[in-house]
Design brief:
This protein is an alpha/beta fold. It is built from 16 helices and 27 strands. Helix 5 links the parallel strand 1 and strand 2. Helix 10 crosses helix 11.
Length: 563
């Protein structure tokens, strides 16, 4: 036997010992965990596993136990979850914030920042502030405030106070005037093209040498409307010779006449994120702001600005961005897919938006565990879906009720089948009660299972009885063959069934382009008991996977494959 064959046999024996009969799917997971190279030829490996499981399921329990004793199983020690620490943090003195801009739907990246902030706040018995960075009227909407707030609540995260940056405009105006009076900022009337050229040449424009009073007069004109949109900006006097281009006299305020979703037309001069983010962290007493690595070059500006304003400088914590491979979060890329109907909306289960993850059936706890596993690392990460799905399966398996489903059904007519009402457990271990299935002589099995059958072969309908194949055609004819357990065991539904479909999400992108096959639809039958489920319920279709009931219409159920 090869080493791979030995690994397959020992895990098949262990699975049979633990559960009475070995299951190829369960064995495959253990094999891959111990022998990762098995993934290179899963088709061949699965054939080996199925064959081995069939042999072992014919063995007596005493034989299984005797052979199992020859193998060793190394239990991996459980790693203790490391708590996320905030440098210099003290109990009761920590203030953290969630700082979303309400310009789009919340996604997995937001979940990471929010969860880390929450973890630090809770660890140090601190305060958590939900702060809306709402100082760009052109991009922000009330609907996104609602979506983000709902997403945070759904994740199971809480906060102590809620603040809007746009409510602090007078304070920010006052700080801007301080910069102008102190000669640390100036009003600039240069065009965007002129500004770009000056920055490239590392030379301050002529506006930078004007007296503070002239800049203050221009500032007044920006506020009262005598200076039109695009007519002037306020720029910080940084270092035009700095290698970090962010420091070359960055813009702090600009005129935006679009109506704000909360403040309406009260203000026409708005701070950039470079000004607002740093200033609001200091004004609100934030001790440990979470900042994405994409802002790392701007950290120098953050500190420089606060020092010029003589404001407290918080201890910044930098984290890497998180994006799932082939599951983009770019609104520019996704909006046309939504508008043309290629996506079902911003809650499409192929998307890593929180609404999409919820619709897919990903549990909030799975998301929190997944994002916190990256900690405060600055290493850019783009994991595939599987890491999140593994976490979700781990949480669902102990709690999800079980039901029967067959994909691409093939009719099975069983001669002399006992008509009965079968009573089956909703969960194999928990006391969740039972469901009943009426049976007669007509059943349905999946096409994939039906294609493996040969004439005169005996197989078992799971938790029911055995069938001997008499004829194979469009339908399969068979006859009742007793109740003694046999190796080949199939999922089934009886004639008491419901039409259903399962939407199976796949990677949204392929080679950087929209994947036309990113949503597979599996048609089939599920047992009639599924009609009693409430929309949103997560269950396991045995030997298929965990699914979420998405909608009920016209005597048909639609599920989304979760994991």
């Amino acid at each position: 036997m090869s080493e791979l064959d030995i690994v397959i046999r020992k895990h098949a024996l262990k699975n049979a010992s633990d559960f009475g009969k070995a299951n190829p799917g369960s064995v495959a997971g253990k094999v891959i965990a111990e022998w990762p190279d098995a993934k290179k030829d899963m088709k061949g490996v699965m054939k080996k596993i199925v064959d081995e499981v069939a042999l072992i399921n014919k063995m007596k329990k005493t034989e299984i136990e005797a052979e199992l004793s020859k193998y060793e199983f190394v239990e991996k020690p459980k790693e203790e979850k490391k708590e996320i620490e905030g440098e210099g943090a003290e109990d009761g003195k920590v203030v953290v914030r969630y700082a979303p801009e309400p310009n789009g739907w919340p996604h997995i990246g937001h979940a990471k920042a929010f969860s880390i902030a929450h973890a630090i706040g809770k660890r140090y018995k601190g305060k958590i502030i939900l702060r809306w960075d709402d100082t760009n009227p052109e991009a922000e909407k009330a609907e996104f405030v609602d979506a983000i707030r709902d997403g945070i609540k759904w994740l199971g995260l809480e906060w102590d106070e809620e603040k809007y940056c746009s409510d602090y405009m007078s304070e920010m105006y006052g700080l801007c005037e301080k910069l102008l009076k102190d000669g640390n900022a100036y009003a600039c009337t240069c065009s965007q093209e002129e500004t770009s050229k000056a920055r490239e040449s590392m030379k301050r424009c002529k506006c930078g040498s004007q007296p503070p009073q002239k800049s203050l007069e221009m500032w007044t004109g920006m506020l009262n409307g005598s200076v039109k949109e695009g007519g002037a900006t306020i720029r910080l006097k940084g270092d035009m010779a700095a290698q970090n281009t962010v420091m070359r006299d960055p813009t702090m305020f600009r005129i935006i006449t679009a109506q704000h979703f909360r403040q309406k037309n009260k203000y026409r001069v708005w701070p950039t994120y470079d000004f607002q983010g740093a200033v609001m962290d200091s004004l609100l007493g934030i001790t440990h702001p979470i900042r994405s690595k994409e802002y790392e070059l701007r950290d120098e500006l953050y500190v420089f600005l606060l020092n010029k304003l003589e404001l407290r400088v918080p201890k910044m914590l930098t984290i890497s961005r998180l994006q799932i491979k082939n599951a983009p979060i770019s609104k520019r890329l996704l909006r046309p897919l939504v508008e043309t109907g290629k996506l079902m909306g911003w809650d499409d289960p192929r998307l890593p938006t929180l609404a999409g993850l919820k619709r897919r059936g990903i549990l909030p706890e799975a998301i929190r565990n997944f994002v916190l596993s990256f900690g405060l690392s600055k290493v850019e990460s783009e994991p595939d879906w599987e890491a999140l799905l593994v976490e979700n399966r781990k949480l669902l398996d102990p709690i999800a009720d079980r039901y029967f489903f067959v994909a691409e059904p093939v009719e099975l007519v069983v001669e002399d089948a006992p008509e009965d009402t079968v009573k089956l457990r909703l969960h194999p271990k928990l006391e969740h009660g039972f469901r009943e299935i009426e049976t007669s002589g007509t059943f349905y099995i999946s096409r994939a299972d039906a294609d493996t059958l040969e004439k005169d072969e005996v197989f078992r309908l799971k938790d029911l009885f055995n069938v001997e194949v008499s004829e194979k055609g469009k339908a399969i004819e068979g006859k009742y063959a007793g109740d003694e357990k046999v190796g080949k065991k199939f999922q089934w539904v009886s004639d008491a069934r419901m039409d259903c479909e399962v939407l199976v999400p796949r990677d949204l992108l392929r080679n950087g382009e929209y994947n036309e096959d990113s949503l597979k639809v599996v048609n089939g039958f599920c047992e009639k008991n599924c009609a009693k489920l409430e929309q949103g319920t997560l269950i396991q279709f045995e030997r298929f996977g965990f699914v979420r009931l998405d909608r009920k219409e016209n005597e048909k159920l639609t599920f989304v494959f979760a994991c």
